[in-house]
Structure prediction request, 1130 residues.
Amino acid sequence: MIAYAVTILFLLLAAPLLTGVIKSLKMVLLYKRPVSVFQGYRTFSKLLVKETMLSAESSQITRVAPYLVLSPLLVALLFLPPAVSGAWYVSFVDAFTLTGLLSLSTFFLMLLGLDSASSFGGMGSSREAFIAAMVEPAMVLTVFSVSMMAGDLGVGAAGVNLAHRFPAGHTASFVFAAISFFILLIAENGRIPVDNPETHLELTMVHESMILDLSGFYLALIETAASVKFVIFASLFASLFMPFGLELPLLAAFGVFALKLLLIALAVALIEVNTAKLRLFKVPNLLGIAIVFSFLSLITFYVLGA
Amino acid sequence: MSAFLTGAFLATLVAALFATRLYRLLMWYALNSLALGLLALLIGSGLNDPALIISGVLTLLLKAGVIPLVLKRLTQRFALTRQVTPDIKVHYAVVLIPAILVFTFYLAEPIGRMVGGNANSVAVAISSLFLALLLMMEHRNVAPKIIGFLMMENALFLLGTTATGGMPMLVELGIFFDLLIAIVVINLLFRREEAVE
Amino acid sequence: MFSFDALSLLFVGLIVLGAVPNLFYTFGYLPHIERKSHFLVHYFMFIASMLGVVVANNALVFLFAWELMSLTSWQLILTDTAEASTRKAARFYFFMTHFGFVFLLLFFLIAGNGELETAFAQLKIGAGAFAYPTLLFFFVLLGLLSKAGVVPLHVWLPYAHPAAPSPVSALMSGVMLKVAIYALFRFLFDILYPWPLEWGVLVLVLGALSALVGVLYALSEHDIKALLANHSIENIGIILLGFGMGMIFDTLGLFTLSSFAFVAALFHTFNHMSFKSLLFMGAGSVLHRTHTKNIEKYGGLIKAMPVTAWTFLIASVSISALPPSNGFLSEWMIFQSMLGSSQIAPMTLKLAIPFAIFALALTGGLAIACFVKAYGITFLGLHRSENAEHAHEVNGAMKGGMVLMAGVVLSLMLVTPFYFTYFDAAVQLLHGKSVYALIFPEGIWQMHSVAVYGGTVSPLLLLGLLIGVTLLLVMAAKLIGVKTRCHRSWACGYTTGPRTQYSATGFAGPIRRFFSWLYRQNVHFDKERVAGHESKFSHAHFDVHVTPLFERSLYRAPVRAAQVLSYWVYRLAHFEQTRYAAMIFNMLLLVLFSYRIFAHEFSWATLLLESTVMAISLKILVIGDRK
Prediction:
């Protein structure tokens, strides 16, 4: 139970750090002088003390939605698989609930975009709706495939099962599912090549344009939500697709877990530096690959038993 | 392990169906042949069949190494278009390709059972034959069509190894000879395409 | 003559739950209707006839009540006959509903051997003696699914349901479609049981198609009531997905999973009744106050109509299948029953069910997009027209109806186990297998799946956690003492106004463009340029009209069939080089196909199914898009 609480706290606190790490890694790779990896915390604390501007055009939804964007993600954080062996985990939540919680958060984010009556917000919501609709099937199929390899649909139990007996006979479908999930990680978190988290050009932005009219405390909530979402996906990837190192002694296991998260951040940074952002109508090509690989994962699992 | 390699074979084939650049396509072909060659080596060493091991090594050398490089050289020499967009749009392809895979598997299932041995692998080999044919169909340019043809060759080889546990050496030699002819034909075709353009 | 078993009583409950809030709403709506007595007579007859259908126990009573239901709803559509489109929709509805009626009549005549007064239980004998049970099954499908609006018999639905007065739309979409689902349960279990495998697969395919087609056309719709009507097609599709899974499992002897899937289908039936009625009531209120159905003319209504807006939000969350709503729970159950497919033996079926999962998941994603659009454009932002600006909240009775219905939605979420006892009783009656104890093995807090490797969900805990975390965040905001100030939207420095907002057409733009092959959209775009400048214009109008594919193919295609045929023959003679490879591909497919069909095993249903697949492959690969 203590390990559980520590993991959750660690993930929550490390969330801004992880996005900061990606940012500074990218800057290093582009031969720029990197910003501090702790920039996320500074921004957060600054936003907390700033005055919050509300758009006069907006309605009650703008006052409610930021909370509802963050809270499903915080709840989802509680259900992640354990980082160390033998730790307590939530057994009564399965992967569909988790994806549902993520969709709930996105739903309110999209409403938020439409509420400020600016064309940017609407544009962001529209694009997000398009991408989210394409992500959904790949996500469900990947989850299905993983649940069979892990022998449980419950997120926590799946992580533990995979760590205890790795499905060595099913390496092929395991790898395909991992490829599919990694694409989803990129797409859901709005990283390049799906969305550019740094730009403020109307042609390219998706996530940023929905939150254009937020400031102060509400912006802090949304920024936290974005980093928490990334940490949820990263730790899911670490637990489900890199299922090793749980058996080590407590501190070492934590260390390995943190290392895995850093590794994912590094991979994302490398991809971001090496690819160009896709045109919106090319994004389905990428997600199409995720969908096909999740199908392929299922087919090889059934047919070849691999 | 052999199942993993069959899976990798299938995955590279499917990835090739989505490729839009010629060099990327060649890379998938090379990886596809790599998986096939390793599979042949694995099955050959399992059966203690020197013929299969030899053809496995040949596959690794020729198909995974030489042919992609030669093709790359040829495309450079004839300055072929390297942007090869599939005719089937991606929103069809996402469902169509798994659907064709499953449907052909469904149709080929009784044949697999007739052959005996590893029925599912045989059926998958037949399905990959169709996918390779699809690769030929979905492109207008000659170069990807040829890669589709080579992939089909690979699928036939996979069918042979999985269905019979190693084909007679004669058949395999015949296939490699075919390949040689194919390369000659490819050269001719490229020249023609150049003339047309 | 009548039977009051668990299934009938369950659907009586459904009708009552759907009708009581509707009565309040109707009472508030009544001053708006001109021919009051005409409306009221038919309205009450309509409810009574639906009750009659679900308690009927012989063919005569059933058909009488069914026909009465059709006729009264037809008259209700004709309440306001001012518009020609309404009269046309009513005529269309009248035709389609009788098209289905003929098949039901045929079914009863064959099963009852000409006798219409035998009880349903006895009909089983007649049906069993009939040599072609698949024909009977097709009669039932045609008769019931044309009423339920399943693809490809759905074309009338987006016209007929919106044309009626809003409370009637709510009843028709929310309740009447479920009566057809009731009849499906009743006939398939009581008369046609047991089923071959292909029947279940057919129902599954129809469900998947309806779900996708419904939600895709809903996305392109600007008429709010037609949008909701299209969503009814989608939800009926989802119900059929659950039902089809149940049929497949039953045939394969997996009775626990089968019961689970049927309970899921029943649960979604109830859920759809609740949230669709609520959505239609909300749409009706908006329509009542703004006098337009066009979603582009709304905007900012949450400020003037808070009760409507918040109840509509509850229903939107629920229909988008977001946790912890009841819509999520039933979709979760259907997903779980599909995961159960990993247990089944026939390999190809096992491989095919992921496609149904794909369809359901894509439907879910698109439904979210659609309801963000419907809610965002209607209630958020600035007023897009004069009408919306002068709107105000509806009267107390209508509000009462909506709040009551929201209560029904919430009750389905909060006291799920209570409802489940009744679903379980109904399924146990039909199927002989109770699953309640398996779904709630450890009390009401957790819902378990019965599939191997299945998951668990705990809606109440989830709800509690969500509320708790949100309250914590709100308290944090209070603690920090967030200072707020109101100012107009920044929007990168541009001025915002009603006309700079995103429109519904624009919102659905990316998705419409991606699925353009399905929509075949007609774009009207004109602008008045200032002094011939390309980029400067004083006025612009952009409008997209979508012709549904099925409407075209079902009604206009036969006329053009000859033309197309000759065109194909022409194409065959003038193939391009690439098409030859495609020909060979299909030829090879044909060889394998004929081997499988004629040498391996033969069944009419698979022949039909596979011929369809072959035809699609021919169409896509050989014939391709018309240039």
In short: Chain C has a mean pLDDT of 88. Strands of chain C lie at 447-448, 456-457, 484-487, 521-529, 537-546. Chain C touches chain B at residues 347-348, 351-352, 354-355, 358, 514-515, 517, 578, 581-582, 584-585, 588-589, 592-593, 595-596, 599-600, 613, 617, 620-621, 624 (CB under 8 Å).
